[in-house]
Amino acid sequence: MSATLRQHIEKITPLTDAEFDYVYSMFTTKKIKKHQFLIQEDNEVFNDYWVVKGLLKAYHTDREGRMQILQFAMEDWWISDYQALNNHTRATIAIDCIEDCELLALSWNNKEKLCDELHSISNFFRKKSSLGYVALQQRILLLLNKNPQERYNRLYKLNPTLLQRLPKTLLASYLGVSRETLSRLTHP
Questions:
Q1: Distance (Å, whole) CA 35 – CA 41
Q2: Total Cβ atoms within 10 A of residue 120
Q3: What does the DSSP assignment read for 153-175?
Q4: What is the full DSSP assignment across 68-135?
Q5: For residue 60, what is the enclosing H or E element?
Q6: Exposed/middle/buried for 24, CB within 10 Å: 0-12, 13-18, 19+?
Q7: C-alpha distances in angstroms, 5 versus 50, 63, 113?
Q8: d(C-alpha 77, C-alpha 100), whole Å
Q9: Residue 71 phi/psi, 5° resolution?
Q10: Cβ distance 58 to 45 under 8 Å?
Q11: C-beta pairs of 68-73 under 8 Å, 24+ apart in sequence
Q12: pTM assigned to the model
């Protein structure tokens, strides 16, 4: 687990053995079963999570009771309610497990401490935040400007293994289409 986290971080910034040992000491391991919540709406959020194993979904339930999926997270991805985590407010989204999950949790306080003490980790999280913002912007533009087939093709191109792991109802919700429409979409 520590080796995969180190590889993940070092895709962006190198660390000495001592630096990595210190960084890793700030994480805690969390195991969650399929269908269990990592974060529930209106609860406090204390951690950012890196996915070691498994698949999660982040979503909001609208007034009509429909699930609006914002994000999926699988191995090597980060997930949290960042609005609640960074603003110290209550969660506005829920995150639950689609599969059994093993996560590394990094508290807001430990993340701040690491960023204050290690320039390389501050740089790592700055770049990860920027990449996350770009991905979110692309997702919004896809929903606004592309038809369902184009959205499906883009997701397939970026994450073909993700599509194989998702139940059709969740995939349809993420793409903003009905289950019937999803059944008519084809791989590129």
A1: 15
A2: 18
A3: HHHHHH-HHHHHHS-HHHHHHHH
A4: EEEEEE-TT-EE--HHHHHHT-B-SSEEEESS-EEEEEEEHHHHHHHHHH-HHHHHHHHHHHHHHHHH
A5: strand 56-61
A6: middle
A7: 8, 38, 18
A8: 15
A9: -160, 150
A10: no
A11: 68/173, 69/170, 69/173, 69/174, 72/98, 72/162, 72/166, 72/170, 72/174, 73/49
A12: 0.93
Which domains can be identified in the chain, with CATH numbers?
A: 2-118 (2.60.120.10)
Residues in the chain: 188
Residue with tokens 């533009």: 141
The alpha-carbon radius of gyration of the chain (Å, integer) is 17
- Tens of pLDDT along the chain (188 residues) come to 789 999 999 999 999 999 999 999 999 999 999 999 999 999 999 999 999 999 999 999 989 988 999 999 999 999 999 999 999 999 999 999 999 999 999 999 999 999 999 999 999 999 999 999 999 999 999 999 999 999 999 999 999 999 889 999 999 999 989 888 988 887 76
Q: Which residues contact 107 (CB under 8 A, 6 or more apart)?
A: 26, 46, 47
